[in-house]
Amino acid sequence: MTMLRQRIEHELDTLDNRSMASVYEQLRLLNSMRQSPGKRRIVPQNIEDVLKLTSTSKGSWSETVVSCREERL
Question: Which string of b and e fits 32-46 if b means at least 16 CB within 10 Å?
Answer without folding.
Answer: eeeeeeeeeeeeeee
